[in-house]
Amino acid sequence: MHAFLWLSLTALGLGTVHADDGPFIRLPAPQTSGGKPLMQALKERHSTREFSPRVLPAQLLSDLLWAASGVNRPESGKRTAPSARDWREIDVYVVTADGAYVYDPDTQLLRRVLARDVRALTGLQDFVASAPLNLVYVANLNRMTDASPDDRDRYAAADAAFMAQNVYLYCASAGLGAVVRGLVNRAALASALGLDGHQQIMFAQTVGYPK
User: Fold this and answer.
1) In what order do the strands lie in the sheet with 90-96?
2) The whole model's pTM is what?
């Protein structure tokens, strides 16, 4: 593993395991209780565009990703955000200074797809390059069986938006800032992340401690 990546992950308390198709980072089990009441989180939800470079602790990152798209019904594998026809077509890519990862809700693992800093590619605004975390919502169109092109676009956008709103509410509860962004150089980012033609970037969301 790249030395800088290893040191950064160790500092976060994130252990690594290896599988046949590459390294994984095991997140702590999410804490699924506590937080602010829903109505208070709704009242405090807003967009932030100035972020501290402070890295999110491992537990906070785990809780955030679980809020976005974690499994809340283990018996069925269903998740915190709804998904049209249970396609589960949206993957959450986690982009940090250490690289880029895909979140696996079923195992609470991050699978590394890139070991370099591509935060600047996740948006056209200056702050995305220095914010500690950018989430990228990617639709895998191959999972949307029997859907017309129009329905694929409509449902994928809605499903990604549900996840982003979950993140907004979690951030409001946890004292974090967040902003959803549609201004993304999709071609450059897709190339960096190694996406295939059936994978479509919907939008991105920056998360961090507000300045």
Assistant:
1) 15-19, 22-26, 109-114, 99-104, 90-96, 133-140, 199-208, 177-181
2) 0.90
